[in-house]
């Protein structure tokens, strides 16, 4: 007896029936066709979803990552970017982004989509290792944990080879590396198909060149590579993201005017408000002049679109956004207008507003200062008897020379800096006399014009000279309780001031490029730095002793301060140190204002006696 396998009508696939040949001569053609169709359908992979569809249909945001946890709903400007990332004809995507538009979610969604649907070697490049760890712990892992389809795909547990770590994961068909740009050695070790670069403007070239270029070279072996570079821009002259955007098809996001229907990119010039009422800021259409209130913004953004301004560029999609299209409550036109008014007279704050909300690079106000123009701005105030009533704090910067100590006193109001005076203590810094005289000077108490008293709130003493460093550290170590700090300047993209341990003592590293940029912008863009008429003529010449230039290192532009030939810079250094240590004074401004009106003299700091025998 012979048998054959059939799927009779109504019988589920996978069930087998044994039919006697003498009971049925053959299977009907339509049954075989239906069987074949069902079998092929079962083998057919699910339809390929675009990145925005996959993110909205699959990804979930936990409470710790988003203020609106749960399913992801993308705004049109996010959808356009995500579509470009998933477009196989687009090799590069550049995003010039402000804050408050949710673009970090797109990066995490891109990582998740590739791991779940198209396993590949993936690299995420972050500025520092701390940023890399924070990204994995605070963004990526919570999203994978909150999304059912993603759970266990990015396990932190080591595999049999022990190769999984917090920043290096393996999964079936691919791997994920989260790498710090400051570690070029890590960039040499991996070949990747998908490269995601976050906060590119915080990445400076090192000894081996630009970390961005080094990372991009790791993708050369993949013809279907994908490179996504995004950042909030910083300095216009050296911005990595603005340079990349300029090489793209340069798309802008436009919204329709509710009145005339014309599409425009909302710019800061289109936002207006009644005098003194920034909370009532509105959008004024540049075409028809109609006024649109904030409540219409969501509908405008929903109907928005990306427009390509350079259609001749293929394969590189570039996107530029500002926070004026964000629908978050903290990005309302009124909130942004209020932040502008609070920042417009303070270049350091205005730069942050320009970078983070307008998504624009900051342009330096002046490359070189005019010392004669600065000297002409002097005013009749000085220590000790003509202190401006606005002064609430006093700091000092001390520059150590081989035959003297140069000192500049800075007064601080709520918004202004007052250069109160300068002083020179002559003598050998390797001896004791100059340090005793400096100690006396830093103990001085001045009568405030409102009746209270002022004294040095913080001082920075230059320890950058290797010859005198031990003397400076020895002087400052027992006086740190009085906020007298040993400081050393360091160039590059650094914070204003941070602590470090050197030779068994606390040394504070000053980001001199950052502080000089703040000072020069204050001097060039307004009059928030004011000068005493007792300052010597050389003070202004030394204050303007450096100029900002852009040099290229290994093909990457780099901003740096360069000394004007023949100039000395002691006064500039003193002002920079005095500005830096202000960040270490945490006293409340309102409370200090009450203190300077008090009639009670402050207690004199106790004299510290140190044994020379104990110091060896």
Oligomer: single chain
Percentage of residues assigned to helices: 25-40%
Morphology: elongated
CATH topology of the largest domain: Nucleotidyltransferase, domain 5
Question: Spans with pLDDT under 50 lasting ≥5 residues?
Answer: 1-24, 158-162, 607-616
Total number of distinct structural domains: 3
Continuous helix count: 19
CATH class of the largest domain: Alpha Beta
Q: Please state the structural category.
A: alpha/beta
Overall pLDDT confidence: 85
End-to-end separation in angstroms reads: 109 Å
Strand content: 15-25%
Please name the CATH architecture of the largest domain.
2-Layer Sandwich
Description:
Helix content is 29%, strand content 24%. It has 616 residues and is of the alpha/beta class. The protein has three domains: 5-43, no CATH class; 51-250 and 309-321, P-loop containing nucleotide triphosphate hydrolases (Rossmann fold, 3-Layer(aba) Sandwich); 371-615, Nucleotidyltransferase, domain 5. The strands form seven sheets. Strands 5, 6, 7, 8, 9, 10, 11, 12, 16 and 17 form a ten-stranded mixed β-sheet that branches. The chain has a nine-stranded mixed β-sheet with strand order 18-28-21-20-19-24-25-27-26. The chain has a three-stranded antiparallel β-sheet with strand order 13-14-15. A hairpin with a 5-residue loop joins strand 22 (445-447) and strand 23. The model is unreliable at 1-24, 158-162 and 607-616 (pLDDT under 50).
């Amino acid at each position: 007896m012979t048998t054959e396998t059939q799927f009779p009508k109504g019988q589920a696939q996978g069930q087998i029936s044994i039919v006697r040949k003498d009971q049925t001569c053959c299977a009907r053609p339509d049954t075989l066709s239906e069987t074949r169709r069902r079998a092929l359908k079962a083998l057919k992979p699910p339809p390929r979803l675009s990145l925005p569809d996959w993110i909205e249909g699959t990804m979930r945001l936990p409470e710790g990552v988003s203020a609106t946890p749960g399913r992801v709903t993308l705004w049109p400007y996010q959808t356009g970017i995500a579509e470009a990332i998933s477009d196989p004809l687009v090799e590069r995507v550049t995003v010039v982004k402000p804050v408050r538009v949710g673009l970090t979610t797109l990066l995490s969604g891109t990582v998740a989509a590739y791991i779940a649907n198209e396993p590949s070697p993936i690299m995420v490049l972050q500025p520092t290792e701390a940023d890399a760890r924070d990204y994995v712990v605070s963004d990526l892992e919570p999203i994978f944990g909150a999304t059912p389809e993603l759970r266990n795909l990015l396990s932190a547990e080591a595999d049999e080879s022990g190769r999984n770590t917090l920043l290096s994961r393996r999964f079936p068909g691919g791997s994920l590396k989260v790498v710090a740009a400051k570690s070029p050695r890590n960039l040499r070790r991996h070949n990747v198909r998908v490269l995601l670069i976050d906060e590119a403007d915080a990445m400076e070239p090192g000894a081996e060149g630009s970390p961005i270029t080094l990372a991009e070279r790791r993708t050369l072996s993949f013809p279907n590579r994908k490179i996504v570079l995004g950042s909030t821009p910083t300095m216009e002259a050296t911005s990595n993201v603005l340079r990349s955007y300029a090489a793209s098809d340069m798309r802008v996001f436009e919204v329709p005017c509710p009145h005339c229907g014309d599409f425009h990119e909302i710019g800061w010039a289109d936002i207006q408000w009644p005098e003194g009422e920034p909370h009532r800021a509105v959008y004024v259409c540049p075409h028809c002049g109609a006024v649109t209130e904030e409540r219409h913004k969501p509908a405008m953004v929903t109907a928005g679109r990306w427009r390509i301004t350079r259609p001749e560029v293929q394969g590189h999609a570039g996107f530029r956004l500002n926070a004026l299209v964000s629908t978050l409550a903290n990005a309302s036109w009124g909130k942004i207008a209020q932040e502008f008014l609070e920042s417009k007279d303070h270049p350091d704050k205005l730069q942050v507003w320009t970078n983070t909300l307008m998504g624009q690079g900051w342009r330096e106000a002046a490359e070189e200062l005019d010392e004669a123009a600065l000297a002409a701005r002097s005013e009749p105030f000085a220590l000790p008897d003509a202190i401006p009533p606005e002064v609430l704090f006093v700091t000092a910067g001390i520059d150590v020379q081989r035959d003297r100590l140069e000192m500049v006193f800075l007064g601080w109001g709520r918004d202004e800096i007052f250069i109160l005076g300068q002083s020179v203590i002559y003598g050998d810094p390797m001896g004791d006399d100059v340090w005793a005289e400096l100690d006396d000077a830093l103990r001085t108490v001045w009568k405030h014009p409102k009746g209270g008293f002022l004294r040095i709130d913080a001082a920075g003493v230059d320890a950058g000279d290797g010859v005198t460093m031990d003397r400076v550290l020895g002087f400052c170590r027992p006086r740190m309780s009085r906020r007298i700090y040993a400081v050393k300047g360091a160039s590059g993209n650094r914070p204003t001031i941070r602590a470090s341990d050197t030779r068994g003592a606390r040394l504070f590293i000053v980001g001199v490029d950052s502080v000089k940029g703040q000072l020069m912008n204050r001097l060039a863009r307004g009059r928030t730095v004011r000068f005493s008429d007792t300052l010597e003529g050389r003070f202004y010449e030394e204050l303007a002793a450096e100029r900002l230039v852009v040099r290229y290192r290994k093909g990457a532009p780099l901003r740096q301060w360069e000394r004007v030939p023949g100039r000395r810079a002691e006064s500039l250094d003193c002002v920079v140190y005095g500005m830096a240590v202000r960040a270490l004074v945490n006293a409340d401004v309102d409370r200090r204002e009450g203190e300077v009106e008090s009639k009670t003299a402050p207690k004199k700091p106790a004299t510290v006696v140190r044994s020379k025998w104990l110091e060896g």
